[in-house]
Amino acid sequence: MAATATSVAVPAAIDRKAVIQRYATYVILLGLVVWLSANLINSPSQFFSAGMVGLNLGMLYALIALGYTLVYGIIELINFAHGDLFMLGALFSGFLLTTVMGQEHSDFLGIVLLLVTIVGTMLFCGGINVTLEFVAYRRLRRAPKLAPLITAVGMSFVLQFIGLKWNGSTPKQWPSVLPEGSFGIGEFQVDYSLLAVIGVTVPVLLLLRWVITSTRQGKAMRAVAQDQDAARLMGVNVNRTISFTFLIGGALAGTAGVMYQQVVGTTAYNLGYQLGLIAFVSAVLGGIGNISGAVLGGILIGLIQGFNDGLPYGFGQKWSQSVVFAILILLMVFKPEGLLGRPTTEKV
Amino acid sequence: MAVDVPAKARRMPGLAIPHRMRWPLGYSAAAVLVFLAYYYMIPNLGPGGQTFFREWLPLTSVNEALVWVICALGLNIVVGYAGLLDLGFVAFWALGGYTAGWLMSGFFYQVDIHLFGGALGTAPGIHISFWLVLLIGAGFCAVWGVIIGAPTLRLKSDYLALVTLGFGEIIPQVFTNGDNVFGFNLTNGTKGITPVDPIAIGSFKLGPFDLVYKYVIFVLIVVVVVFISLRLREGRLGRAWLAIREDELAASMMGVPLMRTKLSAYAVGAVAGGLAGVAFATHVGGVLPDRFNFSISITLLAMVVLGGMGNVWGVMLGALVLAWVNSTGLPQFGTSFNEQFGTDINFPSYNYLLFGGILVLMMLFRREGILPESRTRLVLHEPSRTDMESLGADMEAPAPELDEEPLLKTTAADEPVITDETGTGTGMGMGEKV
Q: CA-CA distance, A245 to A291, in Å (whole number)?
């Protein structure tokens, strides 16, 4: 009796909600299009340069967001320390490239050493991430959800402390080995640094895609993400797979750190918290746990931030954090599964 | 703080103190003791003792610790009672602080409102009595608690934490950038609003050095928040919060209105946050947006976690200890250490390590906190998976302290272990359960 009653009532409620959501999405998208085209008509060159800055940021966000998404997808933990790992990566790359290898100009040797630095930073950040997992998260894997989350926040503070001791409390400037200047396409200028970021990010993303789809370890990751216990019964070493996921996530954060340090040139100990949260919003926007969603979300958030900061009708840089978090809140309220994610149903 | 009345007094038939009177008496005794110490004893202590107290336990840091206690008790209602992880609690503190900034200063010089205020009658601006502002700030924050909570409280643990974090970032940023809201100066930007009026009791105004009286006022606010926490927890609402914390689905099936209960937790927590904000504004004598950053939320969370989620006295202890370490203990220890060993170590910069370390170590080794609430301890040590899944998990690298289920263990040990010829072990207690 009761079952029939609910089965009649529930679809109606869901339908109404879905319709409201759909129309709300249309309204938001329409507003976005109007805003963008108003800016484009007003000043095309400014629009283009803001978009370029946004794309630049977006690539970095995508790299960081992938780390969040991989870890969340596999053990459902929001790894708050991930952003600070990125900060440590930026510090380490500056340390390695400038202090250890002494490279301060852009020439051929600089590019080679940059590649060495990328590999070194990837290993460094991946190692830290694996250590964090081993020391803290592994023991809490079966604890109530609050416990690992608070641990992650605590770890973020510990990493910030390391950054504070390493970088000092004031922002630090680093020389760049990327070629300066820009070239023109028609009347628009494109920075070389954007090309460098694309040149590093895209191969790394393709490599990640290959690892996840085609290797044995990638298959194990997908299996563990589906169901840890079933994977274990099938002979997958769950602990090793999770460690491997943390390693990849850390390596991606390290790559982002190198590129950030090269392109922006300034590091600060609290950098990771700010950028990490924005990257997390990107991961959520794309649908957390979804790899291509993280890339899409990262680029979208980067573009939104670039447009907001650089366009005449934007809110300006001082509100850029607020804009990103407002997106997060709206998204959480209306579409928590993200753009590419699948809505999860509660297991009863 | 609140000590139980000694066992002897309880046993004496004539002097038996009813159970519900115990904590108020213990609390008042402790508060009066501290008051007397600072009002009478320490000024007459002789130079050595005075220096010691001025350096290691100044009354300002006691007062500041009390403000932290008020706020941490508010967070305890949200996190400890209702189990809603809030990483943006600083928003309420900031809102309360700015309420005091707006209503107790000459900031809005365009208007001229005086209501039992602590400023001269001729001064421009809004000058409302501290006590009224306490009420207004609490109400304002409660409204904001509902505004923030209404759309977001449908979300579950991680997502809720993130959304609150978002609000905790946006609201201070609004205060930072609020010096030009459509041409109107709402918050004075990064310069903040100073000075805030002194507290006035009748015609008597507390000057900057009347710290002892400020201490009394803050102790009174703390007792109000403690009273609210304890009474609500025993009542219908408190039990509904606990039910939601332990199993939301089960609670809703048993008829607990989820949204209303969660919203009330948010609102009550926000009230405490607002009280703390007003108290803080008068303690410092102004409000600055820089003071309301993310690390405050984390410090509050560390206080709740360290003391013991859900236990009022534990949280109070955690807040007092951490606030003291934060404001006086660490710098003072650093100075002494550096003097002693001739080193030059910047101890206050170890704050991050300290608070992060506390969160991690507590979660790893003593999740229930220093003074745990019995129920929290049980919940936090219960494996979250079903027996079937735990059995699978046991096949590799177990974490014995999490797997302990005394009841199951004893039955398994009591039963004789039967092994058959093939050695597969058929008669194990654990195996048969599946």
A: 13
Residue of B nearest to A232 (CA): B392
3-state secondary structure of B127: strand
Cβ-nearest to B158 among A78, A140, A154: A78
Q: Give the gap in angstroms from C-alpha B240 to the nearest C-alpha of chain A.
A: 19
Work out the minimum CA distance from A25 to partner chain B, whole angstroms: 17
Q: Is B166 helix (H, G, I), strand (E, B) or coil?
A: helix
Question: DSSP string spanning B345-366?
Answer: --GGGGHHHHHHHHHHHHHHH-
- Determine, for residues B364 and A233 on separate chains, whether the beta-carbon distance falls below 8 Å: no
**B406, HSE (Cβ side, Cα atoms, 13 Å):** 2
**How sure is the predictor about B222, in pLDDT bands with cuts at 50, 70 and 90?**
very high
CB contact burial B207-237 (16+ within 10 A = b; e otherwise):
eeeebbbbbebbbebbbbbbebbbebbeeeb
Q: Do A143 and B162 touch (CB under 8 A)?
A: no
Please list, in sequence order, all residues whose beta carbon lies within 8 angstroms of the beta carbon of residue A344, skipping any fewer than 6 positions away. A337
Residues B170, A149: C-beta atoms closer than 8 Å: no
Quickly tell me which residue has 């109107």 as its tokens.
Answer: B184
Task: Name every residue whose Cβ is closer than 8 Å to that of residue A136 and which is 6 or more positions away in sequence.
Answer: A151, A155, B360, B363, B364
Name the burial class of residue A156, with classes exposed (0-12), middle (13-18) and buried (19+) by CB atoms within 10 angstroms of its CB.
buried
Q: Retrieve residue B33's tokens.
A: 């003791």
Interface of B with A in 327-346 (CB under 8 A): none
Residue B13 confidence (pLDDT): 57
Strands A172-173 and A188-191: unpaired
Flag residues of chain A having pLDDT under 70.
1-14, 343-348
Per-residue model confidence as pLDDT tens digits over B399-433: 555 555 554 444 444 444 444 444 443 333 333 33
Residue B398's closest CA among A142, A247, A223, A230?
Answer: A142
| Burial status of residue A172 (CB atoms within 10 A of its CB: 0-12, 13-18, 19 or more) | middle
- Mean per-residue pLDDT, B341-365: 85
Q: Which residue of B has its CA nearest to A331?
A: B163
How far off is chain B from A115, nearest CA to CA, in Å? 33
Report yes or no: B246 at the A interface, CB cutoff 8 Å.
Answer: no
pTM, two decimal places: 0.82
CA distances from B103 to A257, B246, B289, B292 (A): 46, 41, 17, 19
Q: What angle do CA B252, B255, B258 make, to 5 degrees?
A: 45
Residues 6+ apart with CB under 8 A from A97: A103, A113, A114, A117, A177
Instruction: Return the pLDDT at B138.
Output: 95
What are the tens digits of pLDDT across the range A97-155? 888 888 777 778 888 888 999 999 999 999 999 999 999 898 888 787 778 888 998 99
Closest CA in chain B for residue A140: B364
User: Using the beta-carbon criterion (under 8 Å), do B360 and A318 form an inter-chain contact?
Assistant: no
Q: Please state the separation of Cα A96 from the chain's center in Å.
A: 23
Residue B328 has pLDDT above 80, yes or no: yes
Instruction: Give ∠ CA B280-B286-B290 in degrees, rounded to 5.
Output: 85
Q: What percent of chain B has pLDDT over 90?
A: 25
Sign of CA dihedral B89, B91, B92, B94: positive
Q: Which of A153, A158, A103 is nearest to A128 (CA)?
A: A158
Question: Considering only residues 172 to 211 of chain B, which have any Cβ-Cβ distance to chain A shorter than 8 Å?
Answer: 173-174, 176-177
Closest-CA distance, B433 to chain A, in angstroms, reads: 18
Token pair belonging to B135? 């009420």
Among A29, A58, A45, CA closest to A312: A45
